[in-house]
Amino acid sequence: MIELALAFYLVFILPVRTLWHSTRKDNKPKRPLAQRYFSSMREIGLLLLALLLICWWNGYGAIDIGLALPSAGAPLWCLIAAAIAMAALLIGSGLSSHKMPPAKRAAALESGRESGMPTNAAEMRMFLVLVLFIGAGWELLYRGFLLLTLTPHIGTWGAVAVSGLAYGAAHGYKNPKQISLSIASALLFATGYVLSGSLWWLMVIHIALPLTGAISIYQLFQQEEARHALS
Asked: Where is the CAAX prenyl protease 2/Lysostaphin resistance protein A-like domain (predicted)?
């Protein structure tokens, strides 16, 4: 019963709720970033607790939800490649923020504020924790758990399609390009999990992508503060 409830929440309730909030006009001031970060971590944490209970009740092991340690072969090489790509992205994000033209810098700062990126050291520390919840938690829930639960009913590729569409929709709606890319990337991640049988390398990528953007935006805000202090 808990297994079906969690699957229903991930496939229907969470995506519909997120789409609803992202498309309706809301003139209320946004909550402080720290509160928004904590709210996201709390939701993911509670869902992971439900997943832990399901695994205990059904006797699922680490292998069943994609957490088997990578062995020699494709999963190991995927993990190594993901780690190298993560390092390159993080280094590149730090270098690119220093070379950004003024107009592009202003647009990036505004986009960072709107998207909830950290702007100071306290927010950055909390974001580092949040990104672990996001990268590990959503991979376990939308790839490891959903594919395990849905595959016996609708087949492997049906499960890939449903989990991809649901997770893409759970990113909300800004414009047709954004939601199309969200769904496409979610389908790609689910396919990567099916082909490799491992979530570890996907977790690394999932952590690296938002962290790269956060570091770049954070450095831009720090550079702006430094300029204002000197002027």
From this structure: 124-208
Helix axes 74-96, 200-230, angle to 10 degrees: 10
Name the CA dihedral angle for 107, 110, 112, 118, rounded to a multiple of 10 degrees: 130
d(CA 200, CA 78): 9
How many angstroms separate the CA atoms of 6 and 10, rounded?
A: 6
Mean pLDDT over all residues of the chain?
83
Number of domains in the chain: 1
Domain holding 143, by residue range, is 2-230
Q: Contact, 150 vs 158, CB < 8 A?
A: yes
- Environment class of 194 (CB within 10 Å of its CB; exposed 0-12, middle 13-18, buried 19+): middle
Q: With b meaning 16 or more CB within 10 Å and e meaning fewer, what string describes 35-51?
A: eebeeebeebeebbebb
Query: DSSP code of 174?
Result: S
Helix (H), strand (E) at residue 45: helix 33-58
Mind listing the pLDDT tens digit for each residue in 120-143? 888 899 999 999 999 999 999 999
Confidence grade of residue 82 (pLDDT, cut at 50, 70, 90): low
Sequence letter at residue 3:
E
Tokens of 60: 């699922």
